[in-house]
Amino acid sequence: MIQVRRFDHRTEHDSVACREIANLCWHDKVGGDLVEENIDYDLEIEQTDYFVAYEDDVRNVVGFAGVMRSQINYAIAEYVWCNVCPSYQGRGVGQQLTFALIDAAKAMQCTQIILTTHLPTFYQRHGFKTLAILDLAYGRSHLMIKDLQ
Predict the structure, then answer these.
(1) Is the distance from CB of 7 to CB of 51 less than 8 angstroms?
(2) DSSP assignments along 12-61, one per residue
(3) Is residue 105 within a helix (H) or strand (E), and if so which, with residue range?
(4) Residue range 137-149, pLDDT digits in tens
(5) Containing structural domain, residue 14
(6) Alpha carbon distance 46, 27 (integer Å)
(7) How many separate domains does the chain show?
(8) At 79, which CATH number?
(9) 28-71 residue pLDDT tens
(10) How far is Cα 91 from Cα 148, in angstroms, rounded to an integer?
């Protein structure tokens, strides 16, 4: 059974697991060095509230995602780094992480949450709407928003 808990900054295990998952999901798209630099930096940002999905044992991390208050507008939360092990995709892991991040954004009293994704259909099912389509280094991406009120 998949469960979600907060990322544990006190242990190295969660960081290592998230790095491995990020590499599995992004290595072929942007290159391993860039993934490593970004994930190492992002996991250390104290303002980001990360969650991990795990199966059975809390150390069996199969996905992760983070949310932070936007630096542009504090009423908006930013959904960052949602990645799920390829062997667990399609099993509800991303959905559980999305629910956890939406709840965290609401707890921060944010009125909206934004994200960029190359999987807009997944997020549309959760009430997100496309604001713009961007051509980024790793391909076409949708800038999406969801009202939380």
Answers:
(1) yes
(2) HHHHHHHHHHHHHHHHHHH-HHHHHHHHHHHHH-TT-EEEEEEESSTT-E
(3) helix 93-107
(4) 777 899 999 999 8
(5) 2-147
(6) 25
(7) 1
(8) 3.40.630.30
(9) 665 556 667 777 777 777 788 999 999 988 789 999 999 999 99
(10) 25
